[in-house]
Amino acid sequence: MEGLRGVAVLLVFLVHYATLVSPWVPDGGHSEWLLEQVHAIGNVGVDLFFVLSGYLIYGSLLGAPRPFMDYLARRVRRIYPAFLVVFAVYLLLALASGRVERFPADPAAAALYVLQNLLLLPGVFPIDPLITVAWSLSYEFFFYLLVPLVVTVASLRARSGAWRIGFVLLCTVLALLSFAAWGGPVRMSMFLAGMLLFELVRGGHGMGWGSLAGLLTGLLGLAVPLLAMPGPALQALRVGLVYAAFLGLCLAAFRQPDGWLGRGLSWAPLRWMGNISYSYYLLHGLALQLFFIGLKPVLPVGGEWAAVLLLLPAWLATLPLCLALYLGIERPLSLAARASGGLRGGA
């Protein structure tokens, strides 16, 4: 689990790195083409996060019933401390630099825009997020609110495993068909992959799905974004393919943790990245911008290999701020209760 989170957050890092390093790469060269592919591949990191979140949150809710407000308070505690700190930083930087293009000119509308961002509405709703990556938190919180209702209304705790698997598959088909027909937040479907993953693992399914099959399906998930798929119908197909691919990857890792894939995903550096992944996800974009701002006077022009040579220094430069957020805010305020069983899962 921690290693898969590490993979997911590194993929997201590649998206923003590919964007910000582009001024140092010659136009029309091989590096520019490669960065376009890396940017596309990195986008599925968020989809992998959604699968893991669906697995954890759904699994926790299938246990003993808990008061909804207690459950919601725990979710708020998991998400908001680190988010509020990063949100305040972005807000202060926007005001101090005068770069307030995203804010409406009317003071009341600007205040409403800030409130909408605080409530994590950008993403599910067509609102420009102040923190670029915060759109996914909107998806997360919508899932947090929806899944307890689904578990209760469908009486999923009282159903058999086979019934629940059929139910999740039916929801998946209906969701993808509706998104194909009418558009909308199609990547919400990835949470259903996590729910299905939980049922397959809990039911003992997939023991024959080994490391090679898991790796190949995981690579398929990375390759799908490279295909041109415009329009709602093809976007729904794309998400369906990534859904199946990451389901296969996670199933192999979870069902055979002693296999070479599971051992690889338990590599300590990947697990370390997974542990700080939420703080890193929130703040690495700003840290990358600061790195490239500082780089410009030192290295005003790049070359064909600039994107490769700057990759490791750029990643290292993101770690201090993100680690400070994790150690100073996320771990003491959001994760302290995990030691006593108070919190499960991650954002």
From TrEMBL:
The name on file for this protein is: Acyltransferase
Keywords for this protein: Acyltransferase, Transferase
